[in-house]
Amino acid sequence: MAKNAQKPLVKFYSGEEIPLELHKVRIVQKLHLVPIERRLEALREGGYNTFQLNTTDVYLDMLTDSGTNAMSDMQLSAMMQADDAYAGSQSFIRLKQAVEDVLGKSYFLPVHQGRAAENILAAAYVSKTSLVPMNYHFTTAMAHITQNGGRIVELLYPEAYVINSSHPFKGNMNLEDLEDCIQRTGREHIPYIRMEASTNLIGGQPFSVQNLRDVRAIADKYNIRLVLDASLLGENAYLVKQREKEFMNKSMGEIIKTMTDLADIVYFSARKLSSSRGGGICTNNESIYKELEALVPLYEGFLTYGGISIREVEAMAVGLYETLDETMISQSPTFIKYLVDEAMKMNIPMITPAGVLGAHVDAMSFCAHIPQSQYPAGSLAAAFFLISGVRGMERGSISNQRDEEGNETYADMELLRLAVPRRVFTLSQIKYVLDRLHWLYDNRELIGGLKFVYEPTVLRFFMGKLAPVSDWPEKLMTKFKADFGESL
Prior knowledge:
Shape: globular
CATH topology of the largest domain: Aspartate Aminotransferase, domain 2
Number of strands: 16
Number of domains: 2
CATH class of the largest domain: Alpha Beta
CATH architecture of the largest domain: 3-Layer(aba) Sandwich
Strand content: 5-15%
């Protein structure tokens, strides 16, 4: 732990160890805990897709950490000094300096969010013969690659798919499979290797610095670009500090720079990395910068704002520096670990070890009676909202896309993600989540499956609509009311 870092866990006189909020609340936003009858109506209106819910019906919004992390007082104050110039803005110069100071990259292209960076990289480098190896896909990264005619291949070690595990770095890329993939495919068909920090769709699991070094060595051997998705880089670095012996006494800044120095291209969503909006692509390679720069004005906006509000540009700069603050970064993974550990004590099946971004419930075990063709993770997300007012997110087969023949491609894991944005929820709210999750697990046989009634061809989990295969939501509501009376 850094010299001045404060411990995020505090031991009470009773012996209990709990996460401690290392911030104080100065601005509040009203929440709504509507009756269960209204929650059922909201599910029907939203096609049993939690993305389609209105926040006036949501008590705790654990859908995502993207753009929902609490901003600091320093970020808010920085927004007041924004330079609104279309070109040559001093706000952009401050952001560019922050990128260089924190990420160690001297060339920077701003974009409106992470998927915009993925679009630009795919447009520049991916063709119909392309194959992009990665530790694991993210929905939008895969969509942009396939929309440009390319394919992806996921190269994790077998332990990554073990639900209950103590393996510290389940996001590591399988080095032997990577080497084999390059030799079979031909390096000329591989535009870049992508490493995601941390692997979102298998439970927010990190990779080690040593693994990234090894991937870099293979990339160098075959002269292939290495691209780092740094959207959750701060949390990955925090878990490296906790779990990788070489870095336990290193600062967050040292760990982050060690990781970014290994990549040719670093891109990120500031909605995650720096608690603001926007995103960016950065590199130390002038040739790469020249290959990409013309696409920013084409798709995003001029090179000094990239489609981002200039006030958010200021907040991004401050947020990047705050990524170096272990106290700030530790808040989310510490609360996630508490939620996971307590849920495991209740025998609720969770992804372990606890990762970043959120706590992940193993819906395949939780809803073992629901076939994968009826989307157990989506069903669990809908059921949990119904009985709690807590909006989680399906990370399973609904988040996948069909193959070229229109066949369903089932996910490796069916997860309910309960995102824990930085410095947003209190411990009492986390305990409420645990209580309602416990009740639902004890009554899990009442949960039924879902079927699509409207299915977009791309990113269907955002806009798709589903319906229950039976009247199970009504039965679940009846049981909940019988146990809790008129309680919300």
